[in-house]
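Two records follow; treat each independently.
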Amino acid sequence: MPPSKTSKQNKTAMLGFEQQLWLTADKMRGHMDPAEYKHVALGLIFLKYISDAFDEQYQKLKAQEAEGADPEHRDEYLAENVFWVPKEARWQSLLEKAKLPEIGKLVDDAMVAIERENVSLKGVLPKDYNRPTLDKQRLGELIDLISNLELIAQKEQDPQLEDKDKKNKPKQDILGRVYEYFLGRFASAEGKGGGEFYTPPSVVQVLVEMLEPYKGRVYDPCCGSGGMFVQSEKFIQVHGGYTKDISIYGQESNPTTWRLCKMNLAIRGIDADLGKQNADSFHNDLHKDIFADFILANPPFNISDWGGQHLREDARWKFGIPPVGNANMAWVQHMVSHLGPRGYAGFVLANGSMSSNTSGEGEIRKNLIEENLVDCMVALPGQLFYTTQIPVCLWFLAKDRSNGLIKYPYNGEAKLRDRRGEILFIDARKLGYLEDRVHRNLSKADIYKIADAYHSWRGEPLKDPYHLDEQNNSCKTEFPDGCYRDISGFCKSATLDEIRHHDYVLTPGRYVGTAEAQEDDEPFSEKMTRLTQTLKKQTAESDTMAQNLKHQLGRVGYGW
């Protein structure tokens, strides 16, 4: 169900300063390609973030100088997990020189200095601001714009307040929101190329809400810009958990995307092991010894050039050798190989993965099902991705489906029911709403509807029969008592025998059936009489309006 008009207005108000910043910044790129300009804008936002964090700590130390604190001592910052920013790289210094023709070189020098002083950022930051094709005047204007970021956000909060009365939002929160918003806009602007680094937040939220990664190891073998990790931390914070209860491991093959991810996580203070460099998970697995409690991923769809011909004897292919021409089943088996004894995996794949029998894919799928690894399948609506209009689905795997445990904050846990011999199918293709002519989105109510079906089906007690939607209104779950039931056209718990009957095809539409029509208790004769009377009334009103129109046109000299 789409958000109401009021909900959309609230969303616009909430995101207004991001939109304003984007529109202004986008005008400054001139003829630069979005893929190129992305690194210009995001690099500056990151530079502003670490400089702000440094300045905050600097002011604290300055106030403690009488007690022996040294605001220019590097260790004072490292001890507080704050990046050390050399004098020449501090934002205020760059801002004062933003109008100089050499500003590009000054920004590059600042990036080099920061990498030199902070080992974890080595090779991460963009350092091509001095190239001749980058308009230095527009670069200076972009620096000015980002400098006013907090002021823009404050004005959006309440333009009536005097500056001295405005409530400052945490800088990390503001910059993190802007960074994430820009990632989405760049993905949209780049089209197909944007899929290299970005998964729509609503898709990630479905994965996170269903898997509930409160505690343990979280792994993503193709982590893009880090959206799975950001949403996992948000989930924990919203649900009262501790972000320190999870450890994050990721890997990304694209070098520029790997750098985007490092900056995205750093700007949010998320500590993650992404390896010392970018690397291909199939050919150079950087986390061979990691067995995760939760795997969340959005592998590239249907890739044919994954080098499968060099991995025909790989130990990961326990359920069948994946075809050289399509990596879908290679990704599935790679993730299974990294699941801990009670681990869960949720990931996005193209719909073909649910039914294809090409080059042994059907046999691999059959073996995964017979091994009782497949827990739930979700068919998503189309147009959710910026990169492709092909329909996609969500796979959910569980290493132990006999009586797994869900760990909650404050050391709580719930024992799940034995789900062996069953698979839950959810058909969510009719959910969501169009944000514009080409992009679809899932509302909070849609996300909760999908997640609640899964939680109740696996025997997890629902903590609250109500959720908050985008308007902070309460939306009731389909399963208020926590007891699962099949809903025609939406969800169905199918037995292994039913799935065998369908030749191990996992398309939810084959199982859930069609939605039940609303019951109509009105007798036909009464309905016919009522509708006939309504038609006569509306016809009479139409005739009266036509006569009035004819009369008015006659008064002004027009014939009928």
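The next record belongs to a different protein.
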Amino acid sequence: MNPLLSIQTPIPFDRIRAEHVEPALDELLREARGAIDAIAAQTGPRTYESTLAALDAATEKVEYAMGLVRHLEGVTTYPELRAAHNAVEPKVSEFYSRIPLHEGLWQCLKSYAQASGTSLTGVRKRNLEKTLDYFRRHGADLDAAGKARLAAIDVELAELTTKFSQHVLDATNAYDEVWTGKEQLSGLPESAVEAAAASAKAKGKEGWRFTLQAPSYIALMTYLDNPAARERFYRAYMTRASRGELDNSSIVPRVLELRREKARLLGFADFADLVLVDRMAKTGARAMEFLEDLRGRSIPFFERENTQLHAFRGDLEGGGAPGLQAWDIGYYAEKERKAKYDFDEEELRPYFPLEQVVAGMFATVTRLYGVAMREAPGVPVWDKNVKYYEILEGSQVLGGFYADWFPRENKRGGAWMDAFLTGSPAVPDRVHIGAINGNLTPPVEGKPALLTHREVETIFHEFGHLLHHCLSRVEARGLSGANVAWDFVELPSQIMENWCWERQSLDLFARHWKTGEPIPEHLYLKMRQARNYRAANAQMRQLSFGFVDLKLHREYDANQDGSVVEYSRRILEQFSPAPLPPEHAMILAFTHLFGSPVGYGAGYYSYKWAEVLDADAFSLFLERGVFDRETGLRFRRQILEKGNSEEPADLYRAFRGRDPELSALLARQGLQ
């Protein structure tokens, strides 16, 4: 039997093959279309169960199956699976695009709203309101020609953004260097050298292999003494997907053009206004105003930091030292930080063995939210290194999740959370199931996976997303978990990072992998003192992504502004501590913006927006104690469990007792 045809737990990852994909999705799409037609054709009094609940059920199997296919194509791709994924993606996109364009269904929903809408309360009332709003914003009131064009746009966007992501993955894997001379490794920490040796060995080569995957690339840019090699890797990284068969330079303008056309077809000035109307910012202008405010507050500190770094290089190498290039910034910044604080981040790595970090993260969550995690062996997985865990409250299983930590050549870069199944408080035997995926430093011979502190933050961040999904208690699937406004969705994830900095929580997991000793106090103090080193540069980097995103989606005109690569580079350079080379093409590998039909398009500002929320929210924990159970349970009840069942601003006020204030973030960053 085709394992994608029915919802199963445990999920049969060991049985899903490329040949299952098209037959299963074709069948499930037929079933779903029939179910939607039946909703529209029903006679007699309409009820919540026969309309909204039925619509939710009609799409569940398609969502489940396609979610598994997309996930597997992202974590264990191979040519046949990629081909199958690419074959069904347009069909699924067209299916979802046509739901709000279904005239009979639209009339059914409006009829139900008119007859029964005023009697609904709570989540059911919000579900109806959000559904009607979604249908209107996705073309329900368009004429036949408009609906046809909108569906065609959505299909083309799905095809183009899928191709964009695959090009980035392939371009990342296409570049590597194998070094055979020890002198080439000068400056690199032992952890990077060991990882490079293991990578070469895995390829059957002698020496040390370096790639554009995050653990390898970041180590090179931070520690490698050879500026020519740093430059090679920097240029290779910043020009990914810009040449040959993997060139995304024609895809990005077309995606922008289609998004603009879609927005105008639906009555919006631009794509930013279309996607933000349902988010906390509401308009592109408000999002840009938010970014401009933070930029203005950051510039004086940004300029001071960069003057200091240039002066530091001059002091280090003499008055004739050349100006800093883009591939020099990370290298000299690390040297300055070490000189300024006597702090080398590599000193922390032995205190962060992966298994210990994960156990400590679980202990942190137990103290805060009253739930426990336990490994459940024997569950089918897609790679031998993947583990499965259950989340429990007492003896009740609330959810389960897979953890896939390490990079592979058949796995896309970055870190993310996937949601496979959404449970419901009304169905006790249906629990939430998801996954957290990363590309962390892998173990090397004789040692566990020893992480950087930033990688520890990444684990906590993604687990915050996972908790948002798995602790949700919302009846309507579409309003459950992380299905919230995208400028609110990062709050549960970003707030988790704070526990990576507090002594009380660090002592739960930050212990030397050999001796079991906690981080020495002098090293902890240096880590804290160095936390805000070049904080303005870190902030300006995030703001640069937000600016280029909004300007591309609100202002860019190919006829007036020319190449999208050059246009983006000009914007990004305004936020860069060093000139960007002319061929800089980072925008062609920016999967956050162009890796899906919407994604973070016109929404990258959300990271900074949510950072304001997380800093302000965590200030309550600082006031009452970082493990204060009452505050933790309040966050769980008012944020994590509520999903999109209420307006995010109302949820935040219910937790914090007031609106968020910017001062907590600026204080945390030392930028006030």
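Discussion point: The chain has 26 helices and seven strands. How would you locate this feature using only the token line?
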